[in-house]
Amino acid sequence: xxxxxxxxxxxxxxxxxxAAPLFSQAEGLIADQSFKADxxxxxxxxxxxxxxxxxxxxxxxxxxxxxxxxxxxxxxxTLNEEGKRLSxxxxxxxxTATTHVISIKGLAGIEKxxxxxxxxxxxxxxxxxxxxxxxxxxxxxxxxxxxxxxxxSKKKDTAKGMGVVFTLVMVVSALMSWFFxxxxxxxxxxxxxxxxxxxxxxxxxxQAVDTVLRKVNPILFNSFGVYLVLxxxxxxxxxxxxxxANNNYNIFETFMLALxxxxxxxxxxxxxxxxxxxxQLANIPPSFKGLPISFIVAGQFAMAFLGFSxxxxx
Amino acid sequence: xxxxKSSMQLISRGILSENPIFKLALSMCPAVGISTTVMNGFMLxxxxxxxxxxxxxxxxxxxxxxxxRIRIPTYTLTIATWVTVIDLVLAAYMPxxxxxxxxxxxxxxxFAIITMRxxxxxxxxxxxxxxxxxxxxxxxxxxxxxxxxxxxxxxxSGAILGYDVLGFKPLLFFILPSAGFFxxxxxxxFFNWIEIYYKRSRGLK
Lengths: 314, 205
What we know:
The complex is a heterodimer of chains A (about 325) and B (about 200).
Chain A: H1 2-19, E1 30-35, E2 40-45, H2 51-54, E3 60-64, E4 71-72, E5 74-79, E6 85-90, E7 100-105, E8 112-117, H3 121-135, H4 146-152, H5 156-185, H6 194-216, H7 218-232, H8 235-247, H9 251-279, H10 291-306
Antiparallel strand pairs in A: 1-2, 2-6, 3-4, 3-7, 5-6, 7-8
Chain B: H1 7-17, H2 28-33, H3 38-61, H4 71-93, H5 95-101, H6 112-122, H7 127-157, E1 159-160, E2 163-164, H8 179-201
Antiparallel strand pairs in B: 1-2
Helix pairs in contact in B: 1-7, 3-4, 3-6, 3-7, 4-5, 4-6, 6-7
């Protein structure tokens, strides 16, 4: 119970830390900016601005964060009567997941005003979590970790234990991999050692979790210890560091990805084990007994998970 | 255990009686994930074959120097080294095929089949036998991948190796990602069925 309270506290602290960037938005002339519709950006100024300047489309340059060369075309700009709220309509729908940089020429006598529009960072992070958990579930839509998935999804208790151990190892090893990748592999140009370093870190984490768990909670160790060995030879766990290295994720994104991947694995194992327990009572044709029927069930789950592909919360 | 086995026996064991995909049910992830065409299966098969053979040889060469207590980390690092080699080679010389296989080339490092062969075979047997065993297992994996790829490509897009043979698409569904599970499951069931049928027809039980 005491450890549970501690964990809650840590989670709260992490959440506060994550929320910190929210409170430091742009100041000065621009009071607020946000995406409105698919192709609209709404800007609120701190005071009234010049209508002639603000409504001239030629004064705007807008692009998405990584590529300043690809300009987005503004089709109209309308200022409301107060002169405080500006609505920019674009010719094409915007990709609201990326950060947009907007510069306005000659506004309020300043030669160039530049500001960025993006969705709230917390929402974006949460999006990564949900994506790894449901939309890109590692088992059902990325087809990773199947050996362990089919091996340990016979009983609900086993499935839960396995999922928790996986999540734990995944988060720890992903964070360590992130540090190694950003502070050792990149600065010293050792990127070709990626695979060797990541697999080493994963093995190390598994060994560490094994030792710590044995000492701290022997009961838990007795029920989970068996799976720890299985964790090393599993693609889910090594896939997370590889993905974060590919996408240049920062530490928060890494944490969310690892958490989502682990949670997704837990979810998949639990769903599968619930079905497996029922299947033991069913009358299955002899040639389908064992693995073949598990594959068919997993295929149905995979199809069901396809339904999440359009999910967008933020 | 297998000192008297000939090279052919070792190879055929890997392909048939202990086929990594259909019999041992290891390394299922790529079998489901990227087996949409014969070519994909072949390319990943080649990569796995390479890693399996060279890791087997390496471990077999140094088997007397490796302390039993650190053998698993040693295997892992050996495999990781050879995977890095094939990963860089494929990325440099076959960028298109490499892009299709995506993350799975790097994930060879976590394939249970390779570690298992090192643990079960290469750490005990001679270099020559380990080579044949690795070759057999690698070929077995390649054949399995190509078989799944064959079924999916033929039924899904009516083609083999990109050439249109049927002229129509019997089951477009098979080319979709989630159908990988169904195809592998149905193929396994099919092989089981043959086995059961064969045993029955011989009066065995």
